Model the fold of this input.
Amino acid sequence: MHSKKQTSIKYYVGIDVGSASVRAALVDEFGTVVAHAEQPIQIWEPQPDHYEQSSADIWAACCTVTKKVVCGVDASWIRGVGFDATCSLVVMDKQFQPLAVNSEGQTHRNVIMWMDHRAVSQVDRINATQHRVLSYVGGVMSVEMQPPKLLWIKENLKESCWEKAGYFFDLPDFLSWKATGVTARSLCTLVCKWTYTSDGGWDDSFWKIIGLEDLVKDKYEKIGNHVLSPGESVGKGLTPEAAKDLGLPEGIAVAASLIDAHAGGLGVIGADVKGHNLPCENQPITSRVALICGTSSCHMGVSETPIFVPGVWGPYFSAMVPGLWLNEGGQSATGKLIEHVVRGHVAFPELQSRAAASAQSIYTYLNSHLDLIKKSLPVGFLTVDLHVWPDFHGNRSPLTDLTLKGMVVGLTLSRGLDELALIYLATIQAIALGTRHILETMQAAGHRINTVFLCGGLSKNPLFVQMHADITGKPVVLSKEVESVLVGAAILGACASGDFASIQEAMAKMGKIGRVVQPNHEHKRFYDKKYEVFLKLVEHQREYRSIMNSS
Done:
């Protein structure tokens, strides 16, 4: 353990706050995860479309997992800490105490989650302004961004929350503040979720026109007037209090943070691909898209010049990779949708018992069951008469229509395990068809994407990966480390420590390719037809809505 070779290795801690859990990893300078820990965090759903969390609960979980991954490691080998998190809204008073974001006055519930859709009327009014800043979010702001949530708080919790608020943080920025005591914000969060622009900063006219002129008066102190690039060192590193909480030495470098999906992108998109016979070899990084798949999915494409893609967020300058413009597509429910469909099926108890009896996860069992029932057909062809439109939680990209609903066409009276396996397959295909829809929209606007780099929890499911390769027609690259988001967070810590000259250098050294999944081009005609049906589904939904809403 204490050989010269090992003592020369440098380590970094990556901390990732997802929707339902906090994870930490100890990552070495070569991008290898040497220790990993996870801790669940609580979600409250007091009413439909309202999702809340506790910043105290989240920080406590960060401390628990970090102490676990650094246990037994010589602290002098740990050089930096990086955080990423969901783009949830944290509200604190002027003394940095939590404020309730609910009418019940539950102050510990001071976080409005990213997937909270309470601010629908507010975002509709914001979009009706057609303000110029909206051109940087695909022309239409999402209800998942922060301005509509801030407006909701002002209109619904004015006395109890809005007037008492001292600081509104994006969750990644809350974490770097908690670690360092510095209220600086990351360029990533402000540009992607708050309408800040890297060249012009805040636009006073936007905040005034939407009714949040209060934020302009104090020179944006409540939402951030000190901005750092991701990976930049924050303050003087860990404070004594935070160091004690996390089990790390005081003063270790802390990086300006990233949104979780962007950390995943950082962990995979810059990897060295030599020798893998990929179309992106010897091509600029702009030929790649990072697809981060968990509860939801994000599609990250970069370009050297700004590309405005209808219905896709961005272009954001330096929001993920310094010096490059970022476009971000997304699907609001992917892992969550698969879970919803599978667990809600009448045959789910049978699936559970069979999977348990064979010591397999439910998804591994379903994949095996599909192989059993396919007979001579390719697995994907089993859904020739079963089609899903996956927007059970609205469409984020490229249609930016929060009101769209999920659809299933081709149901029968059958209730068994075969039918559960088929609807599971059709749901995965629908998610992959949604990805194809997003990528085709990005390419029509000027992106030149030929390779998909996939990470996140769903990358562990081989059926999910193969369907994305077959349906998009592009090779899918899986990283050597499944926990690419944590590697991305650790890359931030590595940059903050000064051990790498740039994020790009750290990405190339710490991002490693694992497996490449090629598309089966013999199946192209079938999936082209599925895609044609897929696009017809949303046409029909809009058509029947028009009929029902006509006078």
